[in-house]
Amino acid sequence: MIIIDVFYIMELLIPPLFRGDNFIQYMRAPFRVLNQTRQAFYTFFDNVEYELIFDGQVIYLEHLLNDQFDGTLGRIYIGDADQIPPIYFFNAEEGDEPTYLFNNSESAPPVYLFNANSTSDYDFIVYVPVGFVYDANLMKYYINKYRCAGKRFKIQEI
Protein backbone atom coordinates (compact mmCIF):
# COMPACT_ATOMS: atom_id res chain seq x y z
CA MET A 1 0.00 0.00 0.00
CA ILE A 2 1.26 3.44 -0.85
CA ILE A 3 1.75 5.68 2.17
CA ILE A 4 1.26 9.37 1.47
CA ASP A 5 2.45 11.96 3.96
CA VAL A 6 0.30 15.01 3.19
CA PHE A 7 2.17 17.36 5.53
CA TYR A 8 5.55 16.46 4.06
CA ILE A 9 4.33 17.10 0.50
CA MET A 10 2.75 20.39 1.60
CA GLU A 11 5.98 21.57 3.22
CA LEU A 12 7.95 20.69 0.09
CA LEU A 13 5.60 22.78 -2.05
CA ILE A 14 5.96 25.89 0.14
CA PRO A 15 8.75 28.17 -1.10
CA PRO A 16 11.69 28.40 1.35
CA LEU A 17 11.02 32.08 1.89
CA PHE A 18 7.59 31.34 3.47
CA ARG A 19 8.58 28.31 5.60
CA GLY A 20 8.13 30.00 8.97
CA ASP A 21 6.37 28.21 11.84
CA ASN A 22 3.27 30.41 11.72
CA PHE A 23 2.79 29.99 7.98
CA ILE A 24 3.33 26.22 8.13
CA GLN A 25 0.75 25.89 10.95
CA TYR A 26 -1.65 28.05 8.94
CA MET A 27 -1.19 25.84 5.88
CA ARG A 28 -1.52 22.62 7.89
CA ALA A 29 -5.00 23.54 9.17
CA PRO A 30 -6.94 22.60 6.00
CA PHE A 31 -4.83 19.47 5.51
CA ARG A 32 -5.64 18.06 8.97
CA VAL A 33 -9.05 16.90 7.70
CA LEU A 34 -7.37 15.25 4.73
CA ASN A 35 -4.88 13.57 7.05
CA GLN A 36 -7.69 12.29 9.33
CA THR A 37 -9.50 10.90 6.28
CA ARG A 38 -6.29 9.19 5.17
CA GLN A 39 -5.84 7.64 8.63
CA ALA A 40 -9.46 6.41 8.62
CA PHE A 41 -8.89 4.88 5.19
CA TYR A 42 -5.74 3.07 6.37
CA THR A 43 -7.62 1.69 9.37
CA PHE A 44 -10.44 0.53 7.09
CA PHE A 45 -7.91 -1.00 4.70
CA ASP A 46 -6.23 -2.94 7.52
CA ASN A 47 -9.60 -4.28 8.73
CA VAL A 48 -10.63 -5.39 5.25
CA GLU A 49 -7.23 -6.97 4.66
CA TYR A 50 -7.66 -8.92 7.93
CA GLU A 51 -11.14 -10.10 6.89
CA LEU A 52 -9.90 -11.26 3.49
CA ILE A 53 -7.56 -13.74 5.14
CA PHE A 54 -10.48 -15.90 6.22
CA ASP A 55 -12.59 -18.18 4.09
CA GLY A 56 -14.72 -21.27 4.61
CA GLN A 57 -11.84 -23.57 5.54
CA VAL A 58 -12.13 -25.02 9.01
CA ILE A 59 -8.69 -23.93 10.22
CA TYR A 60 -9.30 -20.30 9.23
CA LEU A 61 -12.78 -20.29 10.74
CA GLU A 62 -11.38 -21.67 14.01
CA HIS A 63 -8.65 -19.03 13.93
CA LEU A 64 -11.20 -16.25 13.43
CA LEU A 65 -13.49 -17.46 16.23
CA ASN A 66 -10.58 -17.84 18.64
CA ASP A 67 -9.29 -14.36 17.72
CA GLN A 68 -12.67 -12.75 18.24
CA PHE A 69 -13.91 -14.60 21.32
CA ASP A 70 -11.20 -16.56 23.13
CA GLY A 71 -8.01 -14.56 22.74
CA THR A 72 -4.83 -16.53 23.35
CA LEU A 73 -6.31 -19.71 24.86
CA GLY A 74 -7.79 -21.09 21.62
CA ARG A 75 -10.40 -23.34 23.21
CA ILE A 76 -12.98 -23.04 20.42
CA TYR A 77 -12.75 -25.73 17.75
CA ILE A 78 -14.86 -27.15 14.95
CA GLY A 79 -15.72 -30.81 14.48
CA ASP A 80 -17.66 -32.79 11.93
CA ALA A 81 -21.20 -33.78 12.75
CA ASP A 82 -22.13 -37.46 12.80
CA GLN A 83 -23.26 -38.37 9.32
CA ILE A 84 -25.68 -41.24 8.81
CA PRO A 85 -24.81 -43.02 5.59
CA PRO A 86 -27.62 -42.97 3.03
CA ILE A 87 -29.21 -46.19 1.77
CA TYR A 88 -28.41 -46.79 -1.88
CA PHE A 89 -30.69 -48.71 -4.18
CA PHE A 90 -29.49 -50.08 -7.49
CA ASN A 91 -30.68 -51.62 -10.72
CA ALA A 92 -30.49 -55.38 -11.32
CA GLU A 93 -28.29 -54.69 -14.38
CA GLU A 94 -25.53 -53.30 -12.18
CA GLY A 95 -24.81 -56.73 -10.72
CA ASP A 96 -24.49 -55.59 -7.10
CA GLU A 97 -25.71 -57.58 -4.16
CA PRO A 98 -29.24 -56.65 -3.11
CA THR A 99 -29.73 -54.42 -0.08
CA TYR A 100 -31.96 -56.01 2.54
CA LEU A 101 -33.60 -53.49 4.77
CA PHE A 102 -35.10 -56.04 7.16
CA ASN A 103 -36.75 -59.41 7.23
CA ASN A 104 -40.44 -59.73 7.93
CA SER A 105 -39.66 -61.94 10.92
CA GLU A 106 -37.62 -59.15 12.53
CA SER A 107 -40.70 -56.89 12.60
CA ALA A 108 -38.57 -53.77 12.05
CA PRO A 109 -40.26 -50.56 10.97
CA PRO A 110 -40.11 -49.86 7.24
CA VAL A 111 -37.48 -47.49 5.85
CA TYR A 112 -38.59 -44.79 3.44
CA LEU A 113 -36.36 -42.99 0.95
CA PHE A 114 -36.75 -39.51 2.37
CA ASN A 115 -37.03 -40.33 6.04
CA ALA A 116 -36.29 -37.34 8.26
CA ASN A 117 -33.93 -39.44 10.40
CA SER A 118 -31.82 -40.61 7.45
CA THR A 119 -29.43 -37.64 7.52
CA SER A 120 -27.85 -35.48 10.18
CA ASP A 121 -29.30 -32.06 10.90
CA TYR A 122 -25.85 -30.41 10.88
CA ASP A 123 -22.74 -30.52 8.72
CA PHE A 124 -20.37 -29.28 11.43
CA ILE A 125 -20.43 -28.40 15.12
CA VAL A 126 -18.64 -25.50 16.79
CA TYR A 127 -17.50 -26.62 20.22
CA VAL A 128 -17.30 -23.95 22.93
CA PRO A 129 -16.14 -24.60 26.52
CA VAL A 130 -18.78 -24.77 29.24
CA GLY A 131 -19.03 -21.52 31.18
CA PHE A 132 -17.42 -19.57 28.36
CA VAL A 133 -19.02 -16.12 28.11
CA TYR A 134 -19.64 -15.06 24.51
CA ASP A 135 -22.22 -13.34 22.35
CA ALA A 136 -24.01 -16.17 20.53
CA ASN A 137 -25.53 -13.87 17.91
CA LEU A 138 -22.13 -12.38 17.06
CA MET A 139 -20.59 -15.85 16.83
CA LYS A 140 -23.40 -16.98 14.51
CA TYR A 141 -22.82 -13.86 12.42
CA TYR A 142 -19.13 -14.67 11.94
CA ILE A 143 -19.84 -18.33 11.17
CA ASN A 144 -22.56 -17.45 8.66
CA LYS A 145 -20.32 -14.87 7.03
CA TYR A 146 -17.42 -17.23 6.42
CA ARG A 147 -18.92 -20.73 6.15
CA CYS A 148 -19.53 -22.39 2.82
CA ALA A 149 -23.01 -21.88 1.44
CA GLY A 150 -25.46 -24.64 2.26
CA LYS A 151 -23.53 -25.94 5.28
CA ARG A 152 -25.53 -26.23 8.48
CA PHE A 153 -23.99 -25.87 11.92
CA LYS A 154 -24.75 -25.72 15.59
CA ILE A 155 -22.89 -24.30 18.57
CA GLN A 156 -22.44 -26.82 21.34
CA GLU A 157 -20.92 -26.35 24.78
CA ILE A 158 -18.60 -29.10 25.93
Structure characterization notes:
With 158 residues, this protein is mostly helical. It folds into two domains: 6-51; 58-157, no CATH class. Helix content is 40%, strand content 9%. The chain has helices at residues 6-13, 21-51, 58-70, 136-146, and strands at residues 77-80, 124-128, 153-157. The chain has a three-stranded mixed β-sheet with strand order 1-2-3, with helices on one face. The longest helix is centred in the first third of the chain and has 31 residues, at 21-51. It is elongated. It starts with 5 loop residues before the first helix and ends with a strand. The model has no long low-confidence stretch (mean pLDDT 84).
Explain briefly what this protein structure is.
The chain is mainly alpha-helical and 158 residues long. It folds into two domains: 6-51; 58-157, no CATH class.
Give the helix/strand layout.
Blueprint: H1 6-13, H2 21-51, H3 58-70, E1 77-80, E2 124-128, H4 136-146, E3 153-157
Helix pairs in contact: 1-2, 3-4
Whole-angstrom Rg = 30 Å
The residue ranges in which pLDDT falls below 50 over 5 or more consecutive positions are none
* H and E order: HHHEEHE
Average pLDDT over all residues: 84
Helix amount, in percent?
Answer: 25-40%
Number of strands: 3
Counting copies of identical and different chains, the oligomeric state is single chain
Quickly give the structural class. mainly alpha
Strand fraction band? 5-15%
Largest pleated sheet: 3 strands, mixed
* Shape designation: elongated
Q: Tally the helices: what do you get?
A: 4
Kindly give the count of domains: 2
For the record, give the distance between the C-alpha atoms at the N and C termini, rounded to a whole number.
43 Å
Strand order of the largest sheet: 1-2-3
